[in-house]
Specification:
Layout lengths: L1 H10 L32 H10 L26
Amino acid sequence: MPLFVRILTDNLDRPVLDKTGLDGHYDFAMNYEPGDGPGWTPIGAQLLTLVQYLGLRLEPQKASIEILVIDSVARPSEN
């Protein structure tokens, strides 16, 4: 489930948390046809259909999550 949750998070407009309590490995397949536009196309709508097909639900909730914020980036100075 952790990999599936990561795929959902990467392709939906918000973080997804795994509260299924399921562990182990699961085997399923999904066909995906990317859009005609250049670059990467999110597959969010198709994933929602897959979630329902697998008998899972996505429920909106408020939860605390960890976020890494980078304030600035600088090249290291020479010694």
